[in-house]
Amino acid sequence: MSSGKIPATVITGFLGAGKTSTIRHLLETANGKRIALVINEFGDLGVDGEIVKGCGIENCEEDAVLELPNGCICCTVADDFIPTIETLLNRAEPPDHIVIETSGLALPKPLVKAFNWPEIRTRVTVDGVITVIDGPAVAEGLFASDPAAVDAQRKADESLDHESPLEELFEEQINCADMVVVNKTDLLAEAELERVLRDVKGELRPEVKIVRSSYGKVDAKVLLGLEAAAEDDLDSRPSHHDDGHEHDHDDFMSFAVDLGEVENPKALVARLLPVIAEHGILRIKGFAKVAGKDMRLVLQGVGGRLQHYYDRDWQPEETQSTRLVVIGEADMDSAAIRAALESGPASDRSASEEAGRESAAAF
Ligand SMILES: Nc1nc2c(ncn2[C@@H]2O[C@H](COP(=O)(O)OP(=O)(O)OP(=O)(O)O)[C@@H](O)[C@H]2O)c(=O)[nH]1
Q1: C-alpha span between 207 and 129 (Å, rounded)
Q2: For 68-126, how does the pLDDT look when each residue is reduced to its tens digit (9 = 90+)?
Q3: Predicted TM-score of the model (pTM)
Q4: Mean pLDDT of 325-339
Q5: CB of 215 sitting under 6 A from ligand 1
Q6: CA 314 to ligand 1 center in whole angstroms
Q7: Is residue 362 part of a domain?
Q8: E strand or H helix at 342, and its extent?
Q9: For the chain, which terminal residue's Cβ has fewer other Cβ atoms within 10 angstroms, N or C?
Q10: What gap in Å lies between CA 96 and CA 100, rounded to an integer?
Q11: 307 lines ligand 1 (CB under 6 A)
Q12: Is the C-beta atom of 131 inside 6 A of ligand 1?
């Protein structure tokens, strides 16, 4: 980059939209570029970092992945984010490019603003903000306002912010974008996709490019090198929080459950699906111990869609158990969800009796 600054790309997007998948593909197509990855995750299991570290991609060494597990990168800028970037910049061999994955609940604009902090301003620039969108979730109206609820809220208190937390986050993330990736096109009929593309386009600044993808398969050449210098262009990226209005951490919550050993993946899925549906769980992910298997099972749920696959052998130092992070809106009933998930077949439960350990945290 002509400025001599190291470029940084911010990858944002709602829970489960496909950020980690996009980053994996980016690393696979980076063509020898030395990329450092900063991963910020909501929930305390570090699932995304683990998945990327286990990827086996050439050029993707473990020390190139730094995790910021505190849930909301935009609110821990001074304590976590700036020191992490400084660490990367001060390495004997600094990276060619920094890629930052925000948690699905983070606001990108405060993060972009942080690139103006004197500690890093002269050495790094925001090459671009890339917002990954879950195409089917947009098509199903997950981020649209609920007119009845808004009306009821307005009647109750005129001064309230009338948008749903999901709608507001979606707007924050696309308002800040330099490029939007409409992902999961494999799950959309052409007409639905066209509608999503049209709707999203209507919300964006005119110069913002939209690309479509399936499983985040967008080449690094497309994603990197936008040269947006977004930190110099904050005014064109409107945010609900420009007036100093605080970013509310109480809209969403996460907690971890430990389900011991499961009989097989099918039984685990059968146990999870009705609970996800009944409680409107937004995201569930983690690793499972399957009876008789040496390999760890990765479990990924976005809304009612569940995927699982074995990624690698359990390591000797790891506790072989099923640990999942559950993420939802703040009013979800964590006690009922925990009870429902733990009431699987007795053989599935044996190892998890002491698992009351709740790492619940409201953000
Ligand atoms: N069918 C389909 N599934 C996808 C696609 N992209 C990602 N997924 C799946 O969606 C789930 C979530 O994908 P991730 O890439 O982990 O999403 P994320 O945005 O990083 O998730 P969080 O970091 O938890 O917010 C995984 O099970 C993926 O395999 C896609 O294009 N099509």
Answers
A1: 13
A2: 765 566 667 777 888 889 999 999 989 999 999 998 888 899 899 999 999 899 999 99
A3: 0.84
A4: 92
A5: yes
A6: 23
A7: no
A8: helix 334-342
A9: N
A10: 13
A11: yes
A12: no
Centre of ligand 1 from the C-alpha of residue 4, in Å: 34
Q: Which two tokens stand for residue 133?
A: 């969108």
End position of a domain, from candidates 204, 221, 247 = 247
Domain-terminating residue out of 200, 229, 247 = 247
| Residue of 10, 12, 15, 20 to mutate, ligand 1, most atoms within 8 A of C-beta | 20
Is 283 a pocket residue for ligand 1 (Cβ < 6 Å)?
yes
Task: Provide the pLDDT for residue 56.
Answer: 59
CA of 196 to the centre of ligand 1 (A): 18
Residue 65: the pLDDT is: 80
Containing structural domain, residue 338: 252-355
Whether ligand 1 lies within 6 angstroms of the CB of 200 is answered as no
Domain CATH code at residue 310: 3.30.1220.10
In angstroms, what is the C-alpha Rg of the chain?
A: 20
Q: Do 112 and 243 reside in the same domain of the chain?
A: yes
For residue 360, is it within any domain? no
Nearest CA to ligand 1 atom 14: 18
Indicate if ligand 1 lies below 6 Å from the C-beta of 37. Answer: no
Among 10, 12, 21, say which to mutate for ligand 1: greatest number of ligand atoms within 8 Å of CB: 21
**Contact in structure between 216 and 21 (CB atoms under 8 Å):** yes
CB 276 within 8 Å of CB 340: no
C-alpha 313 – ligand 1 centre gap (Å): 22
Check pLDDT > 50 for residue 313.
Answer: yes
Are 282 and 15 contacting, i.e. CB atoms less than 8 angstroms apart? yes
Gap between the Cα atoms of 214 and 212, Å rounded:
7
Distance, CA of 69 to CA of 42 (rounded, Å): 7
- How many whole angstroms separate alpha carbon 280 and alpha carbon 239? 27
Q: Is the CB of 16 under 6 A from ligand 1?
A: yes
Measured in Å, residue 256 CA sits from the centre of ligand 1 at 19
Domain check: are 312 and 332 in the same one? yes
